[in-house]
Structure formats: C-alpha cells, structure tokens
Amino acid sequence: MRSIIKMKKIILITIFLISVLALQSQTLEYHVQRPQKLFVGTPFHLLVDIKTSLQDSIFAPEIDTLDIFILKGIKSKDKIEKDNVTTSIDFIFQPFDTGEFTFPELEFAVKSADNISYLKTKEFILNIESVISDSTQTIADIAAPLAVGLGFWDYFIPLLIIALSIAGVIFLVRYLKNRKGNILAPIIVDNRPPYLIVLELLEKLKQEKLLEKGHFLQYHFRLSLLLRLFIELQFKVNAVEMTTSEIRNYLSLDDFHEKSQIMDFLTFADKVKFAKFIPTTAESESALNWLEQYLQSYKAKADVNQKVNESLSTTESEEQTNA
After folding, report:
1. Does residue 122 carry a pLDDT above 60?
2. Number of C-beta neighbours around residue 311 at 10 A
3. Cα dihedral 295, 296, 297, 300 in deg (nearest 10)
4. What residues have CB less than 8 Å from 252, skipping those under 6 apart?
5. Phi-psi region of 281 (alpha: psi -120 to 50; beta: other; left: phi over 0)
6. Chain Cα centroid distance, residue 128
7. Which of 198, 243, 299, 303 makes an SS bond possible with 230, Cβ 3.0 to 4.6 Å?
8. Distance (Å, rounded) from C-alpha 225 to C-alpha 219?
9. Domains of the chain by range and CATH?
C-alpha cells in the first residue's frame, strides 16, 4: 500500500515539473525563405513573428557566427494592434560549406513586468550544394548559326531613329532649362561638426525618458546607433551598417585607449540587444553619460583649436601693421 502511494506522488511531481517546463519554454513558429536550390554563399531568410503586450521586452539571441552559417543582417519591425505588439524579425544567413546540415534552434526571451518566458524555434535541415556546374549539363548548339544579310536600309533606319531620339532629348533639356521659374530646390547639407549633430540627437533621446518607461532595449539600441553615426561622420567608416566586429577591424585610431572605450560601449549595447542581459538603471545612465562626455571632448578640442587659430590670426595682423 505504501509503495502505491509513493508511486502516485512520484507521478504527480513528474506531471507538475513537465507542465512548469512547458510554460517556461514554448515552441515558436517561424518561416524560412530560400531558393529551390541553396548554394554556398546564397543567402536565405529566417522570419520569426513574436506576439507580446506593449509593456513586454524581447531579447534576441546573440548571434555572430554559427558553425556553418554566417549572420549577414537583422531587420525587425513592430505592428501594434490594440494592446498587443507583433514583432517581425528577419534574420539573413549565408552558408559557407556544402552538405546536409541542421540549423540549430534560436531562443528568444520575453520579459514582462513579473515574468520571463522563453520562445524557441525548431531545428531544421538544409541541403547546401556547390556552385560548380556539372560539365555534363552544358548546353550545346544543335546546328550552326545562320548568316543574315543586311542591306542599306537595315542600317540607315535604326541610325536615323537613334539620331532623332538624341536630338529630341537635347531639345527637351534646353527647353526645361530656359523655362521661367524652373529653379531647382537647393540640397540642404548639415555642415556642422559631427559632435554637434550627435549631441543634438542625444539631447532628444534624453527628453524621451525611455529608462523611466522601462524601454531598456530601445534605449541602448538608440545609444549604440548614435555612437555609430558619430564614427561614420567623424572617421568616414560606414559604421551604421557594420557589426561590432567589422567596426573593430575597420576603425583605425591613433589613441588605443579611445578605440578600446568605443568597443567596450558597443559590446555592452550588443549584450542588451541580442543576449539575455538586462542592465541596471545605473549602468544605463552611465552609458549615456560616457557617450555625452566623449562627444563633449571633441567639442573641447574644437574650442581650443579655434582659440589658437584666432591667436595666430591676431599675431599676423599685428605684424603686418607694425611692418
């Protein structure tokens, strides 16, 4: 009798543990977009839709390089319907080996006010072929090409049409230039120093008060984007569209300490964006303060250079007057 009661307790505990694990980790629906035949170097898309409430935050997995597949880009967009948000994430991967491989599962964390749940995609198999063509499938002519004899009018008429078309285009361009009021709107270019442009955007970010609203993911994404924009404008590196690893390779600075601080900042932001890392409010505020001080240091350098130039200009003017 005691053994039967003990067995029932074990069964009940097992059922309870299975139900708890099922609540913590759920299978996520996804869709794979790829050509009929996937070759080495041919990108394919992994599309994931995650439905959450407006207050929830989604933390995607930190993906840099898988065993066979390289992550080439991530695109995401939100669709709000009443109190729910559907986040559509488009992962672009590129294979670099041939054979049959299993694409691993991806895990996403959804943080609500009092709970964290995990969503996973299922593994799936991809067959990757070589781009080398089969010589036995080469297309060959079944007969020799026929010779076509062209006469004078066969050449003259096409040339005449081309000449009339060119003349018509020239006439139209001159006509449009001579029309009154045909003034092109000037292209507005922001010629301000990069640090002033980014400082202005940083001030707008402060006014949105994302930390007070609990939007840590959006907050650190915006901070990372502002630093990338400054690097692109200041050092002429296409940092906005690069990964952190690519920025590390292409950004060349004389001051090693400056580059080290930049990479630490971007790596910290990546942990928040792609990993399951939730920073404290103090850490988030510290990140904003560092970025602001970093931009202000370039403003201080510019002010010093301006004073030096003004001093040199004044000295030259006095020397000319004395002469």
Report:
1. yes
2. 10
3. 140
4. 235
5. alpha
6. 26
7. 198
8. 10
9. 23-129 (2.60.40.10), 194-311 (no CATH)
Structure tokens at 246: 């690519």
Share of the chain above pLDDT 70, in %: 76
Higher-scoring residue by pLDDT: 293, 175: 293
Task: Check if the beta carbon of residue 268 is closer than 8 Å to that of residue 219.
Answer: no
For 149-166, the DSSP string reads ---HHHHHHHHHHHHHHH
pTM here is 0.42
Q: Is 74 exposed, middle or buried (0-12, 13-18, 19+ CB in 10 A)?
A: middle
Tell me the C-alpha distance between 293 and 202, whole Å. 11
pLDDT of residue 18: 41
- Contact between 227 and 264 under an 8 Å Cβ cutoff? The reply is no
pLDDT at 22 over 50: no
Sign of CA dihedral 69, 70, 71, 73: negative
Q: Predicted confidence band at 249 (pLDDT cuts at 50, 70, 90)?
A: very high
CA distance 266 to 291: 11
Q: Per the structure block, which two tokens stand in for 195? A: 């640090």
What is the distance between the alpha carbons of residues 68 and 125, in angstroms, rounded to a whole number?
12
Task: Report the C-alpha gap between 298 and 295 in whole angstroms.
Answer: 5
